[in-house]
Amino acid sequence: MIEQVLNRKNLYKAYRQVVLNKGSGGVDGMEVSELFSFLESNRNKIATSILTHKYVPKPIRGVEIPKNNGKTRMLGVPTVVDRWLQQAVSQVLMTKYELTFEDHSYGFRPEKNLQQAVTQALKYINDGKQDIVDIDLKGFFDEVDHSVMLELIYQRVKCPTTLRLIRKWLRAPIQINGKLHKRRKGVPQGSPLSPLLSNILLDVLDKELERRNLSYVRYADDFSIYTKSTEEAKKVGNGIYLFLRDKLRLPINREKSGIRKPSDFELLGHAFTPMYQNGAKDKYQLVVKRSGWVTLKRKLKQISKKTNPYSFEERLRRLAEVWRGWINNYRLANMIAKLTSLDKWLRNRLRYCIWHDWKKPERKRKNLIRLGVSKGRAYAFSRTRKGGWAVAQSPILLTTITLSRLRRKGYESMLSYYQKSKPIFQ
Questions:
Q1: How far apart, in whole angstroms, are the C-alpha atoms of residue 246 and residue 135?
Q2: SS3 123
Q3: What's the rounded Cα separation, in Å, for the pair 13 and 17?
Q4: pTM (two decimals)
C-alpha cells in the first residue's frame, strides 16, 4: 500500500487538498505557502526515509479553541509536511473503507452531510420512534485506544510500512505552552487522518447497531438511537454502553447521556419542536437550538460594530460570509420568524454604522439632503440629541436609508437567502 501512498499523483492530490484547507503552521513554523518549494527539494528524501522506516513525525502543536459553552477544546495541529503525508495516506485508506461503511454514518464522508443526518432523525421521530437513546462519548478524540485502532486497520491493511507510519502519528507528542507531553491514547483533532480514523473505529459500532436491527444516526462521534418505548430504550442503551466499554474501550459521559423525548433532544445544533393541527400535536419539525442563534448574533454584532474601520461594502461582505455559512448549515430548519426579526435588527445596526461614519452635524445635514430630506428637516435631524442607536430606529434613517437603497449598495437579507436555499422537497 505504501507504493500507492507515495505515488506522484496521490502526493500531488494531497498537496492540493492541504493548500485548499489552509490552516496554520505546526511546531516548525512552516506555513502552507512554503510547502511547494520545500517539497521540490525534499520530496524524494522524505519518501526514502519512509521506505527505510527512518521518518519521524514532528510533535503536534496544541491549540485551545473556545467552545460555545465557555469551555475550550484542544486541537492538535501537525506540521504542514505531516499534514501532506497524512492526507496522502487518508486518500488511499478511504478507497479501502468507504464502500464498507454503513449508510447511516453521515460524518466526513463523500456525498454525506449533516443535513442528511438530521433529516433521517426527523423521519424516525415522525414515524413514532420517540424514545431516543442519546449517548455522549466522553472526550472521544482523547480516549481512542491506539491498540484497538491499529488492530482494526491491520485487519484490512497488511502493509507494515503504512501501519508503522500511522502508529508514529498516533504516538507523536503534543506541544502545549512550549512543553512536550507524551500521548498514549487519542486521535488528535485537527489532522487530516482523524476523521477517517474515527469512522473506522465507530464503524464497528455501526455494524453492531445494524446487527441488532436498530434505528440510529451517527455523525462522527455524535450518535443517537431511536426506539418506540422507554423500556426498549433502556434495554438498548444499557447494551450499547457495555459494547462501547468492553469492545471499543470508549467511556461515555453519564451526565450528558440519557433517554430523551423529541422536545428535549438536540442533534448537531438542531432541536425538534411539535407542529399542531386543529389543536392536536401532529408532526415534529426542525428548528435551530437557542445557542445557535446566540452564536450567530454575537458574530454579526462583532462585525457590525460602528467602530470597526470597514467600508460599507467590506462590512456587507464580512457579514454575508458569516450568515451564509450559518444558514447553509441550518437550511432545513424552520426559522422564517426569527430571521425576519434578525434582519430588522441587522439593518438598524448598518444604519447606525452609516450615521456614525457621517460624524459631524454638517456632514449629516448634507447627506440627509442628498437622500431627499428638506433643508429644514435635515438641519433639525442632524442636530438631534438622540443617541446613534435611537436614530437608527427612528424616521430620521428609516425613511432615508431605506431597504431599496441598502439593496442598491449590495445588501441582501438573510430571509431572502434562506428562502432561496431551502429545499422545495424534504
A1: 16
A2: helix
A3: 6
A4: 0.86
108: Cβ contacts below 8 Å, ≥ 6 apart: 195, 196, 198, 199, 220
The amino acid at residue 314 is E
User: Which of 49, 39, 45 minimizes the C-alpha distance to 14?
Assistant: 39
Note down pLDDT in tens along the chain; length 426 residues.
899 999 999 999 999 999 999 888 889 989 999 999 999 999 999 999 999 999 999 999 988 877 766 677 788 899 999 999 999 999 999 999 999 999 999 999 999 999 999 999 999 999 999 999 999 998 888 889 999 999 999 998 888 999 999 999 999 999 988 889 888 888 878 889 999 999 999 999 999 999 999 999 999 999 999 999 999 999 999 999 999 999 999 999 888 899 999 999 999 999 999 987 766 677 999 999 999 999 999 999 999 999 998 999 999 999 999 999 999 999 999 999 999 999 999 999 999 999 999 999 999 999 999 999 999 999 999 999 999 999 999 999 999 999 999 999 999 999 999 998 876 545
- Rounded to whole angstroms, the Cα distance separating 117 from 111 reads 12
Name the one residue in this structure whose C-alpha cell is 454514518.
105
- Single out the residue of 399, 397, 375 nearest to residue 386, CA to CA: 397
Cβ(285)–Cβ(275) below 8 Å = yes
Other Cβ atoms less than 10 A from the Cβ of 28: the count is: 12
Residue 194 and residue 141 in contact, taking contact as beta carbons nearer than 8 Å: yes
**What are the beta bridge partners of residue 285?**
273
Q: Which of 99, 85, 73, 96 is nearest to 221 (CA)?
A: 73
Please state, in angstroms and rounded to a whole number, the distance separating the CA atoms of residues 85 and 39.
Answer: 11
CB atoms within 10 A of CB 426: 12
Angle of helix 194-211 relative to helix 146-154, nearest 10 degrees, comes to 80
DSSP-derived secondary structure letter, 149 = H
- Is the distance from CB of 272 to CB of 122 less than 8 angstroms? yes
Give the separation between CA 1 and CA 338, rounded to whole angstroms: 52
Three-class secondary structure of residue 218 per DSSP: strand
